[in-house]
Amino acid sequence: MSAVLTFLELVTWRDVLDVVLVAVVIYNLLLLIRGTRAVQIILGILLLVGVYYVSRLASLETLQTTLETFFSVLPVAILVLFQDEIRRALAQFGSRPTWGIGQPQQVDSVFHEIVLAAKAMSARRVGALIVFERLEGLKNYVDSGIALDSVVSYDLLLNVFNPSTPLHDGAVVVQGDRIAAAACFLPLSKKAELSKEFGTRHRAALGISEETDALAVVVSEETGRISVAVQGEMIQGLDSNSLRTTLYKYLITDLYPAGGTT
What we know:
Layout: H1 2-10, H2 13-33, H3 38-57, H4 61-72, H5 74-81, H6 83-92, H7 104-124, E1 128-132, H8 139-143, E2 146-151, H9 154-160, E3 171-175, E4 178-184, H10 200-211, E5 215-219, E6 226-230, E7 233-238, H11 240-253
Parallel strand pairs: 1-3
Antiparallel strand pairs: 1-5, 2-4, 3-4, 5-6, 6-7
Helix pairs in contact: 3-4, 7-9, 7-11
């Protein structure tokens, strides 16, 4: 008991604050790399660290020297390997989610219009690409298109993606409950192993989900299939219910795990 009291006397509020802040930073770093290639890279680095200490204990001079040389350039290697994750972390720093800041009925209305439009375009084999801004801003991509700043609606989406209109090429970017712009240019995916069945829309959807944390809904012009690209992965073969569930998961639940919209 006396040891506990002595420990408490030695600990100051600055020590507690220091530990809490470090824990917050580590927790957010883990959230940032969760589900990315960074996890495998970090595990590989930790394995090499373990091998290094084993080499020291076993006096394996050649292996020890080789690993020490590797560790000397490791900071530069980390900057190169984690450049996408670092850029994303800096972009997210201080950012505010565009989803969940309004009333639940507003979110429901947006999702309802999107799902109805996707279902209708799927039935008519009309190609579409709708991008949702999450934490990272998409201003660069919005500026590449035609500004609309309109309420999300079924009729507007069908008119935008009508093949006879000049806006049907490119993507629609949705910010909150507004369509910010149409005919936006997106980066194409860099994945070399993509299936040949993926056309330009699907590659653009994957590309924006690789470059940012955005979510993209794609309707295939060839098959009418509805897909969602998020976190660099493609979720295919969605119907109305599964599309709505996916939108809620990535735009509401993941951003507000404690209680959905505010």
